[in-house]
Predict the structure of UDP-glucose 4-epimerase.
Amino acid sequence: MRVLLTGHQGYLGSVMTPVLQSAGHDVVGLDSGLFAGCVLGPAPMDVPSIDVDLRDVGAQHLTGFDAVIHLAALSNDPLGSLAPDITFDINHHASVRLARLAKEAGVRRFLYASTCSVYGSAGDALVTEDAPLRPLTPYAESKVRVEEDVLTLADSGFSPVFLRNATAFGFSPRLRADIVLNNLVGIAMLTGTVRVLSDGTPWRPLVHARDIAAAFCATLAAPTGAIHCRAYNVGTEANNVTVAQIAAAAAGAVPQSTVAVTGETGPDPRSYRVDFSAIRTAFDDFTPRWTVDDGAAELYENYVRWGLTEELFTTRFTRLAHLRTLQTAGVVDSSLRFQRVGAGRD
């Protein structure tokens, strides 16, 4: 297939691109470049790309593709809370517009990167794709709205699929340090102590970036009739873990580090365990391979190998801090639009 991958220069996109290519797909990227320079280690080999803000995508950018994989988003809960209008503008309105233009351009398959955080506070019971959606943040709310609106576009010629990813972890050449396992391994390495500010009891479903890429590959290969208008939770029940267990995995990967559960922020209302049986049933060739412990070890190995420092950890690889740096430098404006062409790719 000829595939347009939005957000190909982000954390997940930089992992997914070579996986799609290895599966034989012709991949073209689409990205504004906000996080193109957030590289740890050797820069990844980029594919041909369309350098455009998601809000400015036109019909001409979508002609000639068999499928669109839509990853691009402002994907950080603190950022979404700080700038909810921008989050909804990019994550919701621009995403629905992208789907509409894709349909008009003759794209037949639209794979949308949603999130398991749409379930919000679901308690200890395993939630399936049919569970009530209770988003607790602007980021999660934007994902729910896209699912609802894109579903109305579906017909015999346009097949959307919604992949609700668990919280991602694992090394990517374009690193994110503000997702839970990546963050805690970095803190353990840089300080020697993994500090958990909540009481450590909330549940989180985790999934490795490479397993997310494998899920999207499996969805591309599936017959349209089997996946049309479906939502799939992406992950494995084995990686439904508490925050305290995630902290223990991080400390276990970093020699001589310890865990301190302070409880100073009180219980976190976001707590949910997820049932992933639907995606296993749908795709015989999809089996998540990465455990949380394996991911923690991989992260520590790469942090050491490529010289992660506290400054890089807290600025370049933390989404909110990085965007604030770009704004302070006048590279992007208050709406996160670039003030000069190609500025984000330096």
About this structure: The chain has one domain: 2-329.
